[in-house]
Amino acid sequence: MIDHLSMIVDIHVHIPFLDLEKVQPGWRETFKEMLEAGERAGIDKQVVLGLSKNNELVKELLDAFPGKLIGFIRGICQDPDAPAILEKFVKVYGFKGVKIHSEPNLPLMGLLVGHPIFLKAAELRVPVLIHSWHEEEGLTQEAREVIGAEHVFPMRIAAELGKNYPNTTFIFAHAGGMWVKAFQAAKHYPNLYFDTSGFDPERGIVEKAVEVLGPERILFGSDAPGRNYAAQLAKVQYADISENDKRLILGENAAKLLELV
Amino acid sequence: MALIVDINVLLGRWPFMPLKYESAEDILRLMDRAGIERAVATSLNSVFYYDYEIGNREVGEACKRHPDRLMPFAVINPNFYLWKDHLRECVESYGVKGIKLHPDYHKFSLLAGEIADLMGEARRLKLPVYVQTSLLDMRHHPGYCFVPEVPILEVAQAIEHYPENTFIVGGGKHFSSSVQILLKYAPKSTNFYIAIDGIGGPFDGLERLVKQIGSSRILFGTRTPILYAEALKLMVELSKISSEDKEKILGGNAAELLSIKGS
User: Fold this and answer.
1) Which run of H or of E encompasses A34?
2) Suppose A227 and one of A88, A199, B201, B227 were both cysteines; which one would form an S-S bond, judging by CB atoms 3.0 to 4.6 Å apart?
3) pLDDT single digits (tens) A67-115
4) CA B237, CA B241: separation in Å to the nearest integer?
């Protein structure tokens, strides 16, 4: 456990919708409870990723809780004006990044081949956070069904992003899913990062990330509201890594990447 | 300070990666670090060794070395013909306090006819039956060894089918969702406890569970060393539930269930 921290930044938080397309009554109150739960756990700033295309609601939250939240835009990749939309949200609304996930009729594999938004993100100096579960070889059909085949893609594609877009910063969520292979594939591309969000507090994953990638390319994330902030934080706070590594992962890397200081 | 009892620590070797903590002494160091006084120990080697009895004996001997800290449950694989003899050995030689089942790795159904015999023995010996629905989120299973978790509906049916048995249920992918299914399909059953080592979400999952079923049937379990014990302890400590509920979950309920002295 570390004693002194400058700032803890959670790079991966969602608007509390269960239904991606439908605004649910009471979601603002739920979000307030989420924010307070994160603060009780010691989190200073939370990066809010919309679910689906509800980016205006993310903006509403940023306005409602000034100084506590950071916005990432999402769900615009099928729009021919996606680069312009990203630019507007970054320059006008102060968003700090873009989240990429499968969109209707546009699976992740299709997005990862390449997209103009990646170049625009580089130009705007904001990162691209990608939902990730890298695997292609060795999974049984049963396993693919459990994981969700539409979210499974080969790590070589991710590595190619690192090579093909050297000026774009990519953050692969959930430690890449099949984490050992993901870290290895990304090792030689300094513009590829990982977040720690969204899986049980398993011993050894953060440690392996530091061993393979070094501590500067790992970012703490919780995946709230789907996950418990304190349990997610513990993955870093109690990992067998140095206190300096913990500081970097919990906040300093994100602060640098998002130009918070 | 109230007693803290971890219902789920594991001794032995995790075959998929070195966790550095395999012996009783290793686990005690992790318990000390997390501020956990007592724990129920079971054997990973009994899950993965072909001769599962070896692991139970290892755990039994380890618990004898640390009777003030560790108490054993016996992992029983009912696919082996002499499981009843082995359970008797575990009770008589090591004083096991419960039975742990891994139907996913050991490939049996909780609804199979032969399980009735096992449940009968558990009742006769007054041992709770701990069903570990999985040791690790299936999405992190290596492709060469993907083992589907125990279907929660099967657990619900077993709980209803054996109302005189006491069950502990824990583990699994998105376990909070599984618990909701369990509560939906075994709505009248109260003969089971929920171990919290899978309750990693939603952000207020423990608070919701306490509202639903109260705190008396929730047990603090950490799945140490596979998971960080502190993660589950912090989750309880920072939840918006009463101090009384926290004390019951962190140790009071387990102390009562297992008749731990000093409680």
Assistant:
1) helix A27-41
2) B201
3) 999 999 998 888 899 999 999 999 999 999 999 987 777 777 788 888 9
4) 9
Could you tell me if residue B154 is inside a domain? yes
Number of domains in chain A: 1
Q: What is the pLDDT of residues A152-202, one digit of tens each?
A: 777 888 889 999 999 999 999 999 988 999 999 999 999 999 999 999 999
Domain with B60, as residue range(s), is: 5-257
**Nearest CA to B115 among B107, B45, B171?**
B107
What pTM, to 2 d.p., does this model score?
0.95
Q: Measure B230 CA to nearest chain A CA, in Å.
A: 7
Contact B200 A202 (CB under 8 A): no
Contact yes or no for B8/B195 (Cβ under 8 A): yes
Q: Is residue A143 part of a domain?
A: yes
- For residue B234, give the nearest of A34, A143, A234 by CB distance: A234
- Identify the CATH number of the domain in which residue A121 sits: 3.20.20.140
Separation in Å, CA B64 to CA B97, B224, B251: 13, 19, 21
Among all chains, which residue has been given the structure tokens 């705190």? B215
A110 CB burial (10 A radius; 0-12, 13-18, 19+): middle
Interface predicted TM-score (ipTM): 0.95
Which pair of structure tokens corresponds to residue A119? 């170049």
* Of residues A169, A129, A174, the one with CA closest to residue A152: A174
